[in-house]
Amino acid sequence: MKIAYVVNTYPRPSHSFIRREIRALEAQGHQVIRLAMRADTAPLVDADDRTEAAATHRVLDQGAVALLGACLAAPFARMIRAAKLAVACGRRGRGGVPGTGGVARHLVYLAEAAYVARHCQQRGVDHIHAHFGTNSATVAMLAHVLSGIPYSFTVHGPEEFDAPRALSLGEKMRHAAFTVAISSFGRSQLMRWADFADWPRIQVVHCGIDPNRFADPVPMPSGAGHMVAVGRLSEQKGQMLLIEALALAVQQAPDLRLTLVGDGELRAPIEAAIAARGLARHVRLTGWLDEAGVRAELADAHVLVLPSFAEGLPMVVMEAMAAARPVLATSIAGVPELVVPGETGWLVPAGDAITLAEAMVTLARTPNDRLMTMGQAGRARVLDRHDIAREAAKLASLIVR
């Protein structure tokens, strides 16, 4: 098949799961055209991301003339229908909800969709697949109306679940050939906003890992209590609470150490919190790392810690488990579908610094051989559920139905 992938901003350091899915589809013989509305403004540190950037066609870079020409070339009746749909979705998106836009913004999405539709028709695309239920899914839906090419989209959460009405998720699912959730929890949230008749077309396709990149897990390092957290430094990811919990935990487990991998808008406040609590010798910040760098940090740690307040089903949990490392995470969204308390890690309530600190002390006192047993159980679980080749084949099978 020839499949067009539509993403708002691609590639990005945090979107390696899209790259893996695309490459797995290509390895199975499908041709994938990458269409992004825009490039990321952040530097790409991973060589694979830079390769993807070179292979990606950016719609807004084509300029207003190209987008207007695509609008004028679209069949009049289809354009009228698409315009009415865009306006209706834009009206739902009013009210200042980030990422949902209004009528004016949806008319821009319509112009982008006209270009995408024409581009896909000229290249003989069989199916359009978008990632995220935000504006990329809007563009895919409108491109479908303009071209007749079927489309689908993957919803990750948590952003889509914060504003489902404003994002017209129900409308997008109704027009789609199928909708993908990355976890059973995600599917349940989509079912809240879909008509009963659309429920069978909401399918779970997990984000996947490449087992070959985790073929020989590094043994558990010596010492104890080295945790690593990986993710954007933002309110959603809970790193400020993590620092608060660590300050409590080191009173009982003074050898605890934490490596924070990632960057973002909260870096300065996090650094200030570390200094204010006297944790400088316990915490190290690395900034963004490429995939090899993340794997190296996981190998050097005893446990992955995920203190998030909202998630979909984080890739880093899968990567840590594939690397045979236990996971200490908040019990939210799809995380409990992977992390089994007492077997592959620990789950704690979100937003509870005291319970998180108690779990840190527990892991610091857990013998390394027990941690390795938990890590191996997690590795078996994630390889069974999240092999990217199997998940990509599952997605392809949905496309050809």
TrEMBL record:
Q: Which GO terms describe its molecular function?
A: glycosyltransferase activity
InterPro entries linked: Glyco_trans_4-like_N, Glycosyltransferase_grp1
Keyword Transferase appears in the UniProt entry = yes
Q: Does the keyword Transferase apply?
A: yes
Query: Which keywords does UniProt give here?
Result: Transferase
Q: Name one Pfam family in it.
A: Glyco_trans_1_4
Domain named Glycosyltransferase subfamily 4-like N-terminal is located at: 19-213
Write down the Gene3D superfamilies for this protein, in alphabetical order. Answer: Glycogen Phosphorylase B
Return the protein name: Glycosyltransferase involved in cell wall bisynthesis
Q: Which organism is it from?
A: Gemmobacter megaterium
